[in-house]
Write a structure and sequence with these properties.
The complex is a heterodimer of chains A (309) and B (228). Chain A is α+β, with helices and mostly antiparallel strands and 309 residues long. In chain A, 72% of the residues lie in helices and 8% in strands. Chain B has a domain at 91-155. Classes of the chains: A alpha+beta (309), B alpha/beta (228).
């Protein structure tokens, strides 16, 4: 077996060198210009997809901001049973504070409650009578750590001995929590669907470049260029397209958002709306990450069919 | 150097390209693989540079089972052998020198080495003075020399040529075959597929004949057809 003993030539592993990388960048930008129209079409489509992603991010950020704001405002009011002795009030307060999820507990005496009612309703002759026979019970105002837990915390407080009734803005909180969840799911589904479309468009654009260079790819494979070496220029081209789309979508979104947020805030001053500066960073980051991912995925699919090994 | 053990290749279409082929080629040998179109010559070469995988049997190149190479190791195998084709496979917008240099560049050769090594390879095939010509300015024979220079630029121990004279006139064909035959002087193994009877009969080197995917003849100083 003479042929066996001759041994095999050493297989060298060659990484991507810096000069090769510069060459990849040149090739990518060259084909970028060559396939101008198709590239523009792909970038536009990805931009539209990223606009949706960005809107979802902006909406989601505002909803969580709203939830946080309401969180701080939502209170559970626990009314104390009539005729409870003042000495028992401390015991009840301690019991409430010990419930999990409870933030701050504040005692509101019946006198203070009446004064508040008076203030919010304004001076009225009927109050003279009320001050004599105050119908309001003593109560505790409880802040909850997480708005989503309000219902659970309220139910727990209901079981504390000495508590007659518990009230909170149940519907508002429940709906807000449900809305936030529904919106996140819808945004995710929409984003995935649009991402698939975007990947397909990028793939088709890059396929033009791949076809224009199929002979080079064929020879590169034959003479032993690694698959990564062959992929790099296309990967760079795809990622560039994604980044360009991300920059376009991000700027448009921020500009539109700044105007819309200011208008809305003017019309609905009580609504907590985040300023454009507050969402700029997470919005740009999300859009850029999605753009890069879509571009990279598109180039991968485009080259895959031409790699025979 | 190269060894096939009971190799069969059945294409996905169900066509059997090779059936139970066993073959050994030693270092520095020059072998013609002959046979009519469709007899499995090209498939045999493709198994060696792993453009195709055997359905049955083992294909050993430098003692390594090519059929079991990981996808990532194929590039490594290709760097250790040269392949030449009937249609040259040159890049039309690049000069002869650039075409040879391309093979070095895409496998990460340091840039200072590329030009001297590419020129050296062109010198080996006698094309130094046409280094800056575009493929379209070269004759068919000259283009094939460029592609041979590209195949040799990494000094592979094994050179595979698939119908290298298929597109050439008789004079150029003879030149190319003589060039390939001289390469074995440096102990490079050369395997050439052809159905060109004339050159096979003139050269009188080892001839392996394929018919319907089977080896029907293997003679050390053979002729294209059987001598009666």
């Amino acid at each position: 077996m003479r042929s066996r003993s001759e041994g095999s030539p050493v297989v060298r592993r060659v990484g991507v060198q810096r000069e090769a990388f510069a060459q990849f960048l040149r090739e990518a930008s060259m084909s970028f210009r060559r396939n101008g129209l198709m590239t523009a079409a792909a970038v536009t489509t990805v931009t539209v997809a990223l606009l949706t992603v960005g809107m979802a991010v902006a909406g989601s950020l505002n909803l969580s901001h709203l939830a946080t704001t309401l969180n701080a405002q939502v209170e559970i009011v626990a009314f104390v049973r009539d005729g409870t002795r003042p000495s028992d009030l401390t015991r009840i307060e301690t019991a409430i504070a010990a419930e999990p999820g409870v933030g701050a507990v504040r005692f509101v005496g019946r006198g203070e409650a009446l004064a508040r009612l008076q203030r919010s309703l304004g001076e009225s002759p009927a109050f003279a009578d009320l001050t004599k026979h105050n119908p309001l019970p003593d109560s505790f105002e409880i802040r909850v750590g997480d708005a989503a837990q309000t219902a659970d915390v309220a139910a727990a407080i209901q079981t504390v001995p000495g508590i007659h009734e518990v009230a909170y803005g149940a519907e508002v909180v429940d709906r807000l929590v449900a809305l936030t969840r529904a919106m996140r799911i819808m945004a995710l589904l929409l984003t995935v669907a649009l991402a698939v479309v975007a990947v397909i468009v990028v793939t088709n654009t890059l396929r033009l470049t791949v076809i224009a260079r199929w002979r080079e790819i064929e020879i590169m494979e034959l003479v032993g260029a690694t698959r990564w070496f062959i992929r790099w220029p296309f990967l760079i081209e795809g990622v560039l397209q994604g980044l360009l789309a991300a920059a376009a979508a991000g700027s448009v979104l921020l500009a539109v958002y700044a105007v819309a947020a200011a208008r809305l805030q003017g019309a609905l001053p009580f609504l907590p709306i985040l300023p454009a500066a507050g969402i700029a960073l997470p919005l740009m980051a999300a859009v850029a990450v999605c753009g890069i991912a879509v571009g990279a995925a598109g180039s991968f699919v485009a080259v895959r069919r031409f790699l025979t090994t | 150097m190269v060894q096939l053990d009971h190799v069969s290749k059945i294409h996905t279409s169900g066509v059997a390209a090779l059936t139970d082929v066993s073959l050994r080629v030693d270092r520095g040998e020059f072998v013609f693989i002959v046979g009519p179109t469709g007899s499995g010559k090209s498939t045999l070469l493709k198994l060696l540079y792993r453009a195709e995988l055997p359905t049955h049997g083992r294909v050993l190149v430098y003692g390594r089972d090519v059929g079991r190479l990981r996808a990532g190791a194929v590039a490594g195998l290709r760097r250790t052998l040269g392949v030449v084709f009937q249609d040259f496979k040159l890049l039309p917008q690049r000069t002869a020198l650039e075409n040879v240099a391309f093979a070095l560049r895409v496998i990460g050769t340091p840039s200072t080495e590329i030009r001297p090594r590419a020129l050296q390879a062109l010198e080996r095939v006698g094309l130094m003075q046409r280094a800056n010509a575009m493929p379209a300015e070269l004759s068919g024979g000259e283009q094939q020399r460029v592609s041979i220079a590209r195949a040799l630029v990494n000094n592979p121990p094994l050179l595979l040529a698939d119908e290298p004279t298929g597109n050439l006139d008789p004079d150029s064909s003879w030149e190319i075959i003589q060039l390939l035959s001289r390469i074995t002087v440096r102990r490079t193994t050369v395997i050439v597929t052809t159905h060109n009877k004339t050159i096979v009969d003139m050269l009188r080197r080892r001839v392996v004949r394929l018919a319907d995917g089977r080896v029907t003849r293997d003679e050390p100083r053979g002729l294209y057809a059987v001598t009666v």
